[in-house]
């Protein structure tokens, strides 16, 4: 093989995989020097947060919201300061983890993260936040969680539809990692293996294997730059308030079809991982087979907003394998809106 030179930037984190979170959380919090933890969950997972908080003796905030609205972060920050907290325990999907990261960015406190979805945020130094003017994203060393506990038992309560879309959200990180402008062979290994693990695990609800896949895919997201797919989902979620994982599930086959002509090697890795002859169609079939939504229309997007979405998504240039045009993006959105089967 002809190896090119490359840079691989590993992100430091301690991972405990396949363990009971209640059995290890206290000692892991102590290891990080946390004496007054603030446990963060969403409302739906409030009981799990209370359970861990009563064991750790800190305070509990169950107001995490999707897309990390800054106004909510400011309320949570006052709570953190009033209680003299000195560390975060986030338990939940990307929304709870996002709020924990937003507080860690503002206070530089340590984070212990217990993911309950496959979104992969726990493995990245990325924070997306929303205000009235849309969604902004930053990377910072303070955002990267120090310790992650992967407890597969927590995934068993995922509603089937969300398990499917969340798993495809993870796969999307790997797909874009395979053609990233700063991609490298280490990331490629993790990306192909992550797609393979998730595609095998999701149909049989094998939470342990799926979490392993999401860990790999999250690491890919944290290590290299994302392109058109993530940009579109960012616009659709941040400006049109579409749900995060569902939007990823709808867009992924279409963004992959768009990039396929300019990323043949990436397509070959996806095909190997999915055991299919066509990466976009393999991804479409996977989503459909899992019962994930396949159209933006079904997520409540208005057809009249597609032009605006295409304008925003094509306003700032960024690296993408296939050259980006406003028309190309608008056509992609039209296919995704109607849930058409993607072209090769
Ligand atoms: P989420 O965290 O909003 O969870 C969706 C719903 O599912 C919530 O009501 C939650 O309580 C519930 N839920 C989560 N896990 C559950 C479980 N095991 N059982 C039952 N219910 C459960 O959704 P998400 O898709 O995990 O995260 C989306 C957010 O994460 C978005 O804001 C997105 O921008 C962010 N994100 C950030 C990064 C990053 O690197 N910064 C990466 C991925 C996602």
Structural summary, described in words:
By secondary structure, this protein is of the alpha/beta class. The protein is 51% helix and 11% strand. A six-stranded parallel sheet has the order 1-8-5-4-2-3, with helices on both faces. It has a two-stranded antiparallel sheet with strand order 6-7. The chain binds nicotinamide-adenine-dinucleotide. Nicotinamide-adenine-dinucleotide is lined by residues 42, 44-45, 66-68, 92-96, 98, 116-117, 119-121, 124, 126-128, 154-155, 157-158, 162, 166, 169, 221, 244-245. Nicotinamide-adenine-dinucleotide (NAD) binds at residues 42, 44-45, 66-68, 92-96, 98, 116-117, 119-121, 124, 126-128, 154-155, 157-158, 162, 166, 169, 221, 244-245.
Q: How is the topology of this model organized?
A:
Layout: E1 14-17, H1 21-31, E2 37-40, H2 46-56, E3 59-61, H3 70-82, E4 87-92, H4 94-107, E5 111-115, E6 126-131, E7 134-139, E8 147-150, H5 160-178, H6 185-201, H7 207-223, H8 228-240, H9 244-259, H10 264-274, H11 279-289, H12 306-313, H13 326-338
Helix pairs in contact: 3-4, 5-6, 5-7, 5-9, 6-7, 6-10, 8-9, 8-12, 9-11, 9-13, 10-11, 12-13
Residues 42, 44-45, 66-68, 92-96, 98, 116-117, 119-121, 124, 126-128, 154-155, 157-158, 162, 166, 169, 221, 244-245 line the site of nicotinamide-adenine-dinucleotide.
Q: Figure out the total of helices.
A: 13
Indicate the proportion of strand residues. 5-15%
CATH architecture of the largest domain: Up-down Bundle
Which ligands occur here?
nicotinamide-adenine-dinucleotide
Percent range for helical residues? 40-55%
The total tally of domains equals 2
Topology order in helix (H) and strand (E) letters? EHEHEHEHEEEEHHHHHHHHH
Structure summary, number of beta strands: 8
What shape does the CA trace take?
globular
Largest sheet: 6 strands, parallel
């Amino acid at each position: 093989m002809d190896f090119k030179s490359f840079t691989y930037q590993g992100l430091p984190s301690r991972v405990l995989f396949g363990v009971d979170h209640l059995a290890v959380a206290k000692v892991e919090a102590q290891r990080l020097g946390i004496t007054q933890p603030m446990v963060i969950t969403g409302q739906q997972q409030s009981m799990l947060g209370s359970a861990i908080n009563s064991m750790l003796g800190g305070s509990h905030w169950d107001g995490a919201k999707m897309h990390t609205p800054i106004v909510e972060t400011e309320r949570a920050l006052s709570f953190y300061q009033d209680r003299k907290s000195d560390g975060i325990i986030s338990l939940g999907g990307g929304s709870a983890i996002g709020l924990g990261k937003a507080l860690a960015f503002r206070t530089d406190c340590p984070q212990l993260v217990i993911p309950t979805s496959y979104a992969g945020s726990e493995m990245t130094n990325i924070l997306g936040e929303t205000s009235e003017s849309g969604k902004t994203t930053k990377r910072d060393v303070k955002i990267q969680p120090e310790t992650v506990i992967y407890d597969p038992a927590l995934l068993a309560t995922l509603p089937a539809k969300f398990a499917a879309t969340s798993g495809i959200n993870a796969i999307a990180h790997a797909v874009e990692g395979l053609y990233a402008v700063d991609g490298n062979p280490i990331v490629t290994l993790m990306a192909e293996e992550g797609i393979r693990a998730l595609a095998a695990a999701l149909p049989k609800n094998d939470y342990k294997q799926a979490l392993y896949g999401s860990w790999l895919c999250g690491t890919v997201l944290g290590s290299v730059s994302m392109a058109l797919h993530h940009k579109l989902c960012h616009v659709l979620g941040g400006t049109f308030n579409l749900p995060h994982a569902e939007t990823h599930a709808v867009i992924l086959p279409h963004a992959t079809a768009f990039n396929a002509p300019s990323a043949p090697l990436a397509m070959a890795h996806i095909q190997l991982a999915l055991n299919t002859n066509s990466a976009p169609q393999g991804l479409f079939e996977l989503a459909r087979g899992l019962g994930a939504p396949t159209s933006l229309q079904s997520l409540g997007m208005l057809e009249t907003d597609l032009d605006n979405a295409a304008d925003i998504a094509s306003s700032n240039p960024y690296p993408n394998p296939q050259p980006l045009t406003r028309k190309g993006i608008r056509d992609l959105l039209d296919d995704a809106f109607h849930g058409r089967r993607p072209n090769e």
